[in-house]
Amino acid sequence: MNFSQKLGLFILIVISVLYVYISFFNKDFKLPEYNRHEEKPPVYNPLEPIEPYETQDPEETSEIQKPKEVKIFILDKSGKLRSVNRTCDTSVEKSCFNYAIKELVSAPSPWEKSKGFTSEIPAGTKVLSIRESSGNVLIDLSSDFETGGGAESTYYRVRQIIKTANANTSSPVYLYINGKQANVIGGEGVMLKQPLNERSLDE
Question: What residues form DSSP beta bridges with 82?
């Protein structure tokens, strides 16, 4: 047996020993296999928009509420209706229209009084409810709204409601007194056409 034959026999014996060892003593050993179905890494496309990284649950993120200016109408020292602004905190108030009407009923503020502003709405008037829907808005005031003053005073207090309502919503607005639609206001019998608009008090 020459040298090359001896070398070939030695290599064959080594291979046989390795096969027996791998088959019977090292069962966890596996030759690497190519998985042709392995998912390929994503390819970066510079034209594809990148989604922003979110640091918290979107449902727990509330939009920043900004204050909103509303207008109410009261009388200046010369007796003319003038608009003044109020700041509605939208993070607190559910409805800025509701807020505007309540501010009107309680107006004027101490500073406005010092500047000669007044209101013809009686001090005891209460806002019983304000119901807003997609179709219209209903303002229900207490019967105190009709007390005191004459026809001129009643005219101006209704004008205050009309102008304030129309300045803060584009929906039709109806005025109620103690749950009943107010078609006649006060003892002087001021006629009121509804919904409220600039011609509601025209005869």
Answer: 74
What b/e sequence results for 6-21 when a residue is b if at least 16 CB atoms lie within 10 Å of its CB, and e otherwise? eeeeeeeeeeeeeeee
How far apart (Å, rounded) are the C-alpha atoms in residues 84 and 75?
Answer: 10
- Judge if pTM exceeds 0.85: no
Instruction: Please report where in the chains the tokens 């939009």 appear, as a residue.
Output: 63
**Which pairing describes strands 190-191 and 184-185: parallel, antiparallel, or unpaired?**
antiparallel
DSSP 147-185: -SS-HHHHHHHHHHHHHHHHHH-SS-EEEEETTEE-SEE
150-203: per-residue pLDDT in tens?
999 999 999 999 999 999 999 999 999 999 999 999 877 899 999 999 999 997
